[in-house]
Amino acid sequence: MLIDARQVDARSVVLADVCIVGAGAAGISMALELAEKGIEVALLEGGGVESDPVTQSLYGGENVGLAHEPPEESRCRYLGGSTNCWGGWCRPMDDGDFDVRPWVPNSGWPMTKADLTPYYRRAHPWVELSDIDYEIGHWAAKIARGKAKLLPVDGSGLCTIIDQFSPPTRFGAVYRSRLSHAPKLKLFLFANVTEILTNLSATQATGVRVATLNGNEFRVFAKAVALAAGGIENPRLLLASNAIAEAGLGNANDLVGRYYMDHPRIHSTRVAIADAEPYRALYDATLPRLLRGSGKNRLSFAAHLAPGADMQRQMRLPNSRTYLVARSGNDVSKTYFALKALRRAIRGRKQFGYPMSRVWRDLTRQAPVLLAHAPRTAIIMGEALLSPFLRRRNFYLETVIEPVPNPQSRVSLLDERDRLGVPKVQLDWRLTSLDKDHYFALNAIIVAALTTSGLVSPFDVLCQPDAWPSEIIGCWHHMGTTRMHRDPAQGVVDADCEVHGVRNLFIAGSSVFPTVGSDSPTLTLVALALRLSDRIATLFLSRDVATRS
Hints:
Layout: E1 2-4, E2 13-21, H1 25-35, E3 41-44, H2 53-56, E4 61-63, E5 89-90, H3 113-126, H4 140-145, E6 158-165, H5 171-174, H6 176-181, E7 185-189, E8 192-198, E9 205-211, E10 217-227, H7 233-240, E11 265-273, H8 277-283, E12 293-294, E13 297-298, E14 301-307, H9 309-315, E15 320-326, H10 327-351, H11 356-386, E16 394-401, E17 410-417, E18 423-428, H12 433-452, E19 456-461, E20 472-473, E21 505-507, H13 522-541, H14 544-547
């Protein structure tokens, strides 16, 4: 059942077995799994079924760290959450990503890859994928049929890694019918959670307070509460729920909001590839899916280079992914992001009352980019219509490194509040000197391996040590801020994703990741959500949830 929270009687009390905050990939998959097992679920989504700028503005905050989109511009506050702006890249994390690695401080999960493998299998249908094998040999025949080739890095310690493409699955659209018809599920739209409710000692969650932008307020009481609102909103809600626990819920050890991670993305070296077409089909991240492969054998997957497990141990490196970016693709993206920034400023003037000085500031910042790249972009777009591979020889190597978990990188609260009275967030994304060392060591290895093959000719090193970290951008992957650890002194949630010290309060999503590998977090966060739904279902079906109250 879909319910408009703006129309709920303010005097009413909504009762449920489980209240889930956030209707993105984690929240929707959890809600349907639980409801279809006969458990009463209230699923709360802050937006509607489509995006609107006023609701989106509730994500507003400021960035004081590395260059990063403002918080309101890198998430989607409507049904389906950030799957609405997801590119569809899917891959499970690697075995070593779960390990304690002495060369990666604060690493190690309280589970192994094998523990999560059954849930990875279950996660694939949720993102509309049927193939669960990611070994390179499994894809060899399809690569050959698509007339693609692997980069020649044998013997270098590097390996080719496969990612699959989800359509991408827009969870709100794909699962809306199931959400509407699930008999034990109530989905409240425009239902913004402003506070997590607890008992008088803040040792057990009892529900949430809900507010809407039209001034309506009501409460949802539940036997269990699960936050699935993303890597920025999850810690925001915990910190803002401080009526009893002054530092916020789960924050007795000052860990909520710390260890914020995004995947750092760096253009490293400009290279020339004489016969690029068969390699570009696999490794060019800018290439549209419909142009990957050959004829009817289009490729529904992509590839990147990564250090193998042995190289990571021997060279004391984290995980990473390196791929090609067509030089033209970078020019297009610069123009695209400049136009997007101007559109935001103009829309903000109309919708949010931004001062004209802000619009003018953004115009003066973006005009040089548009002037510098627009002619080239026009040529590229016309060229792409004629032939996607026409005269395409020059590329950037782009690398995404697995960041070191850093407690100084964090999400915290500002004194300024949003329209519903919730403190806004301050985002302080930081990297460490180890991240810098890891990146430059890795880039040297990759350039040497590709040069030795004779296929690739490097001719321009882009990211220099003295420019670090000005050349870095993120991937909109918000992770780590409610990290998982068995020890309450080192994590916010335990191995079952339950908040330390607060019974029946659970957290789903990438905010619980202790380390983040180098791939898109979506498949892993869905797998963890399915694991958590099993944990919560076990509590209810065994009636253990009552004894914990």
